[in-house]
């Protein structure tokens, strides 16, 4: 939840602040009588009040139902569907966040669709321009082979943050020292379009033949 709508750097700083403010761990966070302490600890991530309330509510529910203020019990679940059903009942736990939990925390072969993945997938023609993030999640999870889901997700997210051609509004979050040629510029409808390259080569050969 700390990683939603914020940068990776601020998410790490917020988590570090939370651990420092609550050395007793998640139990201490769940038992805190003053949520402003939680807010202060995670303020750097933004939306501190909303995050603090939702986080504590989740931990308190887990403690009431499972006897401990943590979500380690999810390791006993057998499928992404069961985990999604369990987590979606909590405020703030949307499809992308749940998918990230499944992939990164629990090791299930799921394919989260964030803004970068959606934008590049639409650009490549993997999904239509009008496809929503939820629709793309359903479609891409059916077509991306399980063994590629982790690596492909990480690749697209990183590419979307760095590439001038594929970043939102052409403004990458991280600016490389030198601009590179985007490896996806030759892609059309999900396949490499080599026709322009071939036509250019033919034109060059014809021009050379005139001399």
Secondary structure blueprint with pairings:
Blueprint: H1 8-21, H2 26-31, H3 35-42, H4 48-66, H5 80-87, H6 95-105, H7 115-124, H8 133-143, H9 149-162, E1 187-188, E2 191-192, H10 195-210
Antiparallel strand pairs: 1-2
Please state how the strands of the largest beta sheet are arranged side by side: 1-2
On the 0-100 scale, what is the average pLDDT?
Answer: 89
Q: What percentage of the residues does DSSP assign to strands (E)?
A: under 5%
Structural class: mainly alpha
Radius of gyration: 22 Å
Distance between termini?
Answer: 66 Å
Which shape, going by the Cα principal axes?
A: globular
Helix and strand run = HHHHHHHHHEEH
The unreliable regions are 196-202
In percent, how helical is the residue content?
55-70%
Put simply, the count of helices is 10
The description of the largest β-sheet is: 2 strands, antiparallel
Total strands: the figure is 2
Characteristics:
two-stranded antiparallel ribbon; mainly alpha; globular; 211 residues; 10 helices
Q: What does the model show?
A:
It is a single chain. With about 210 residues, this protein is mostly helical. About 55% of the residues lie in helices and about 0% in strands. It has 10 helices and 2 strands. It has a two-stranded antiparallel sheet. β1 (about 185-190) and β2 form a beta hairpin. The longest helix is centred in the first third of the chain and has 19 residues, at about 50-65. It is globular, with a radius of gyration of 22 Å.
């Amino acid at each position: 939840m700390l990683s939603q709508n914020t940068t990776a750097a601020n998410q790490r700083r917020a988590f570090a602040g939370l651990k420092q403010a609550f050395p007793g761990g998640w139990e201490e966070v769940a038992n805190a009588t003053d949520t402003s302490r939680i807010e202060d600890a995670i303020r750097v991530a933004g939306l501190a009040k909303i995050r603090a309330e939702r986080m504590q509510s989740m931990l308190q529910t887990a403690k009431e139902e499972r006897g401990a203020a943590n979500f380690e019990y999810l390791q006993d679940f057998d499928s992404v569907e069961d985990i999604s059903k369990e987590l979606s009942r909590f405020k703030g736990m949307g499809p992308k966040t749940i998918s990230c939990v499944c992939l990164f925390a629990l090791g299930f072969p799921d394919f989260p669709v964030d803004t970068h993945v959606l934008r590049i997938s639409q650009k490549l023609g993997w999904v239509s321009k009008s496809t929503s993030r939820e629709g793309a999640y359903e479609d891409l999870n059916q077509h991306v082979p399980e063994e590629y889901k982790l690596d492909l997700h990480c690749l697209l997210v990183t590419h979307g943050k760095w590439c001038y051609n594929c970043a939102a509004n052409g403004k990458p979050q991280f600016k490389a020292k030198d601009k590179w040629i985007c490896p996806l510029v030759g892609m059309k409808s999900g396949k490499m379009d080599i026709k322009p390259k071939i036509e250019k080569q033919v034109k060059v050969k014809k021009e050379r033949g005139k001399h």
